[in-house]
């Protein structure tokens, strides 16, 4: 996570400069408001850089449950740090609460995916950061995080392979165990 603040005037100046470098006239009708628009868009796309994941996971249900909790098909929208192009897809996040751990709200599992996705990212890094944040905040027995994404830098340029999906997973604690992991994966893969 970056500690620097989002510098909107600097971003606007940089977008104007980029338009000039691309041979465009930033003062022509259609482009006049583009630097401000692009800056607002980046502020939204990178909002997770300035959010604290521990606050997101602070909600405690005080529930006694020691079986798998899995939220599937969480939409992921992120930006690849190599090309500044979007990648998008689905995340599946599960955990087994620990004996001295916490049960959090279901929506918080989706929010934590957002916090780490809305940054300049690598898919592998989102996957392991979400897993590690759950371990640190909930002290669960186990965690599983699976992401399946399509990267625009692989579909619209470069190798140009639209439809190719990258699957990454991170498992922690008891979900490293082959049988427990296989059960979670079968639930993730069900209904597809
Ligand atoms: N491991 C990983 N690689 C990624 C991710 N997003 C994009 N990439 C890859 O980052 C690599 C950057 O490779 P470079 O050779 O430096 O850049 P490039 O010449 O634009 O590469 P091409 O995309 O192959 O044209 C590419 O292979 C991308 O597919 C990601 O989330 N994880
Ligand atoms: Zn890329």
UniProtKB/TrEMBL annotation:
This protein's record includes keyword Glycoprotein: no
Keyword Methyltransferase: no
Pfam families on file: GTP_cyclohydroI (PF01227)
Uppermost EC category: hydrolase
Catalytic activity: GTP + H2O = 7,8-dihydroneopterin 3'-triphosphate + formate + H(+)
Domain GTP cyclohydrolase I: 12-188
InterPro entries: GTP-CH-I_C/QueF, GTP-CH-I_N, GTP_CycHdrlase_I, GTP_CycHdrlase_I_CS, GTP_CycHdrlase_I_dom
Keywords tagged on the record: GTP-binding, Hydrolase, Metal-binding, Nucleotide-binding, One-carbon metabolism, Zinc
EC code: 3.5.4.16
A GO molecular function held by the record: GTP cyclohydrolase I activity
Listed pathway(s): Cofactor biosynthesis; 7,8-dihydroneopterin triphosphate biosynthesis; 7,8-dihydroneopterin triphosphate from GTP: step 1/1
Subunit structure: Homopolymer.
Cited NCBIfam families: folE, PRK09347.1-2, PRK09347.1-3
Family: Belongs to the GTP cyclohydrolase I family.
Protein name: GTP cyclohydrolase 1
Originating species: Kineococcus gynurae
